[in-house]
Write a structure and sequence with these properties.
- This protein is an alpha/beta fold.
- The chain has helices at about 15-25, 50-55, 75-95, 110-125, 145-150, 175-185, 230-245, 270-275; strands at about 5, 30-35, 45, 60-65, 100-105, 130-135, 155-160, 190-195, 200-205, 210-215, 225-230, 250-255, 285-290, 295-305, 310, 315, 320-325, 330-340, 340-350, 355, 360-365, 375.
- The protein folds into two domains: about 5-275, Glycosidases (TIM Barrel, Alpha-Beta Barrel), CATH 3.20.20.80; about 285-375, Sandwich (Immunoglobulin-like), CATH 2.60.40.
Length: about 375
């Protein structure tokens, strides 16, 4: 199946432009964030370097994000803003043109009738040459309004990640496959499936409610919380299941989001390419003691010398000769019994990944003549 990618960055830095050009050979089309409407009807546009984007040589679908908490009474006024933004994007795209407009609105199921009216009006105001699509939620599957909603659309993108209780994780492949197959039976329109190529860090309130979500935009709340990850091997298996038996109407995959070297929550570009190409995605981090330049003082370093991301280990027992140590960068020092003796262990504070060909210092240790290679517990 062909693969699209969302370019969701609000600032088109050189790293974003570089990622677009380095990925053009595996992408069918780009789905680029054009603007966002907030719950109060406010509007924020993204400054897109159209020359660089068009030079990548792939069709462009402009995406307009609408806050799911928007008062439905504001929808008619919002229509004019959407049309104006789409028209400006069509002019900026030049002769290559804009292949389509996608509306990303997490509409409550109870308000799908209003959304249906909005989409019908939008379709009438867009040129016939510009396809209209939307992002759809699995929660809409139980609504009788779904059929009318998709009638004016060229295609639909079904989101199957980050749509459930965060306690259940970011992506459940079994649940996602059920949604995909049911959606194909219900909609009667070509559709694509949006899959995750990123992680999120969440924090919880004392009462158990969700306090914050950190994804493409870093938060200022420190490094704590729980990491919800999308594992490349799991997504590869999911793609293989769809390839073996494609549901009715499924025409492709859309990845959220395009990996960029400066995006610490996204997969590396190399890992994303490996998943799409069906190449191996397994790898392991090495733990090493590296001389610090001071006698008997060593840096504890994690190394990934492979071509794909690797998961961070849970525990790293230090050499028996290490009598003092401490952790850093997400690892802490603990003491425990190792082979019937007291030993020092660096323990990871949470899941994460190490990108290809990178090293990370995770602590120090004072040891006399230790083995340089350490055992890791994944």
């Amino acid at each position: 199946m062909p693969h699209d990618a969302y370019v969701w960055q609000r600032a088109w830095t050189p790293a974003v432009v570089d990622a677009v050009h380095r990925s053009a050979d595996i992408v069918r089309s780009w789905r680029v964030l054009l603007a966002e409407g907030d719950r109060s009807g406010g509007w924020t546009s993204v400054a897109i370097p159209w020359h660089d984007l068009v030079a990548a040589g792939r069709p462009v679908v402009g995406v307009i994000r609408i806050d799911g908490r928007l008062d439905e009474g504001r929808m008619p006024a919002l229509l004019d803003k959407v049309v104006a933004t789409a028209s400006a994007a069509m002019r900026s795209a030049g002769p290559a043109g804009l292949a389509g407009i996608e509306i990303d609105y997490d509409c409550p199921t109870s308000k799908l009738a209003t959304y249906t009216t909005f989409l019908a009006a939008l379709r009438e105001r867009l040129p016939a040459t510009v396809a209209l699509s939307i992002t759809a939620l699995p929660t809409w599957l139980g609504s009788a309004a779904l059929g009318a909603l998709v009638t004016p659309l060229s295609e639909v993108v079904l989101q199957v990640h980050a749509v459930d209780d965060p306690r259940r994780g970011l992506f459940d492949p079994e649940q996602a496959e059920r949604w995909v197959r049911e959606f194909g039976q219900r909609v009667g329109r070509p559709f694509r499936v949006a899959l995750p190529a990123y992680d999120v860090r969440v924090t919880w309130r004392p009462g158990g409610g969700l306090a914050s979500v950190e994804s493409e935009v870093p938060l200022l709340s420190g490094s704590g919380g729980e990491l919800l990850d999308s594992r490349p091997s799991v997504l590869r298996q999911f793609l293989e299941a769809l390839d073996r038996s494609a549901p009715t109407g499924l025409v492709g995959i859309v990845w959220f989001r395009l990996p960029v070297s400066t995006d610490r929550r996204a997969w590396s570009l190399e890992t994303w390419r490996a998943v799409i190409a069906g190449r191996p995605t397994a790898g392991h981090a090495q733990a090493l003691l590296v001389p610090s330049g001071q006698p008997d003082l060593w840096n504890v370093v994690l190394a990934n010398d492979g071509a794909v991301d690797v998961g961070l280990p849970r525990r790293i027992p230090l050499d028996p000769s290490c009598k003092m140590a401490d952790g850093a960068n997400g690892f802490r020092l603990v003491s425990e019994k190792i082979d019937d003796r007291d030993g020092l262990v660096l323990e990871g504070a949470g899941r994460g990944r190490l990108k290809p060909w990178t090293r990370r210092t995770i602590g120090w240790a004072r040891c006399a003549g230790p083995e340089r290679q350490l055992h890791v517990v994944e």
